[in-house]
């Protein structure tokens, strides 16, 4: 069966967003980002920006690669837009991985892929 580009995109979107596990994970990361973005409205002080540690931790280890790229490109002065975009991209990549694992575990035993031979 030959897959078209549209069906591949739909499959990736279904794995990354529309299954239960991925949706819960994305809601968790999105909630953490909303709380972090609203933090400066309610908290003032030198430690107010530390709230951004939570979204970064929820997207680790993929976000570690983003931080490495930021350090390589900008040194110690990585722009905020790059880090926030990295959190979003890391969450989507990890959501895709979670969706793939979830789909694999939910398949009936007869439909699991087996090596040819």
Question: What can be said about this structure in brief?
Answer:
The protein has 117 residues and is mostly helical.
Set down the secondary structure blueprint.
Blueprint: H1 5-18, H2 20-42, H3 53-58, H4 62-74, H5 80-106
Tell me how many strands there are.
0
Order of helices and strands: HHHHH
Query: What is the makeup of the main sheet?
Result: none
Helix/sheet category: mainly alpha
Distance from first to last alpha carbon: 21 Å
List low-confidence stretches: none
Mean pLDDT: 86
> What is the alpha-carbon Rg in Å?
18 Å
Structure annotation, total helices: 5
Shape: elongated
Helix content class? over 70%
Number of domains: 1
Q: What is the beta-strand fraction?
A: under 5%
InterPro entries: DUF7942
Protein name: SCO4225 family membrane protein
Organism: Streptomyces lienomycini
Transmembrane segments: 23-43, 50-69, 81-102
Could you walk me through the main structural features you see in this protein, from its secondary elements to its overall organization?
The protein is an all-alpha fold. The chain is built from 5 helices and no strands. Helix content is 71%, strand content 0%. The two termini are 21 Å apart. The longest helix has 27 residues. Helix 4 runs antiparallel to helix 5. It has one domain. The relative contact order is 0.14.
Keyword list:
single chain, 117 residues, mainly alpha, 5 helices, 71% helix, 0% strand, elongated
